[in-house]
Amino acid sequence: METEQFAGADKINTSFLSPLERRLTPHVLPRIPVWLETYHLTMFTLLWSALILVFSYLAAGNIRWLWAVSAMIALQWATDYYDGKIGKYRNTGLVRWGYYMDHLLDYFFLTSIIIGYSFILPEQSRFQLLAMLALFAAYDFSTFLAFSAMDKLKISYLKFGPTEFRLALIIVNALLILFGTKHMVNGLKWVNAGAAVGLCFLIYSTQKKIWRLDMEGKQQEAGRAWVGNKPQAKAELALEKPYVPVKECTY
Fold this sequence. Notes:
Order of helices and strands: EHHHHHEHH
CATH topology: Four Helix Bundle (Hemerythrin (Met), subunit A)
Number of helices: 7
Helix content: over 70%
CATH architecture: Up-down Bundle
Structural class: mainly alpha
Number of strands: 2
Radius of gyration: 28 Å
Number of domains: 1
Shape: globular
């Protein structure tokens, strides 16, 4: 019995770094240890997220611990990027389980980053951090709602995807180590403003695509209904002709 392919198994990624990632993949996959399975790589995000919280807490006393946070971000990219690909490469993947757990743990990872920054930044920045969590979570919600409506899982927008997001976090950590937290507090407002504008653009463009799909579906249904009713319409026209009585035979 053939099973229909799960649409969530294939992601659409058109980010800046995706071509480089695709070129690296054939060289990396054969070198992943045999004992590391796809579900191991997926669950590693729990470990990286927990260590991000620990190192961020330590960074409140010594900002250089943010280098360790950046290392965890890089490791999370590696395990998150290759977990599904190693499953396809070895034909051992758990497609639906991986879709659910991978994206759920991505949210845990995002939350650990935001909570970690709350350890380091002054208390007056808490509202901006909360707003940042809400905005970036809204991007995830939009992605999954669009997937359920269009059967296409697109994870990059305006050439910016998960890899670019992690790289931005590493750059932010380096700037915090070099220049302190003062500029970060003011910068959060602009980051949130940019994220809000981008979210509005994303919602507008996505709803337009879904609207167009609905309208195309309605046109197709109307076309099928017209074709299906055409013979019936001819029969009804035939019945509407005036009745002419047959002449009686007189002999």
